[in-house]
Amino acid sequence: MTVAHDLDALQSRTLFCLWTGHEAMSDDRLRALWTIFRNTGCAVAFLNRETLGDWVKPEHPLHPAWPHLSATHKADYLRCYLMHHYGGGYTDIKTTSKTWGTFFDQLAQSDKLALGYQELPNGVAPIEGPLGDELRRDYADLIGLCAFIFRKGTPLTAAWLQRTEALLDRKLPELRRHPAIHPLDRQGILLPDGTPSPYPLKWTELLGDIFHPLIYEFRDQIIQAPIQPAFTRYR
């Protein structure tokens, strides 16, 4: 039984932050985390390797690919998992001065499925072909990946989780053969010995490549609001 098994994070205004790796946070990250606790006015659920198990639903365990993912891709997967099963808010650990209460109110008082900041022109996932061209042209219809609020258990979150786990199903044999070897591992990156990484996931494959097309499909059911954190000095 998880400690938060029945939590409706939208109603309780819970804001999730994730740190899934073994490495220590930098001073800039720690300062950014403190601004989230201090400024958002929310109950902050900080999930790391020690606390993650409290949020995994026994009837919906993490995907078998989980142990093989990079820390970055673990965070990509978890935000999807949490938004479907719990809803509520998510933010990257980046400096914020925003109070989130009005954003939670906006979504709760509407019939929409999610709220986020308008995606930046250069923030759209590098999807190829006509769909990618359309998404980049219509970037203003999208929301960004770094901070948002979702209702739990909606057709939007269900499709997000289904597509994410279907990708992991396909990649699982390769992930077992070539698990991530560092937090930022991605397909083709050069390893310290100068050889390309055999890790089979591209940088945006598990999040932006799924999230942006899906948000575009559901764009009439999304609220845009200035919820974004700062995008400087967070490493």
From TrEMBL:
Name of the protein in its database record: Glycosyl transferase-like sugar-binding protein
Organism: Nitrospirillum amazonense
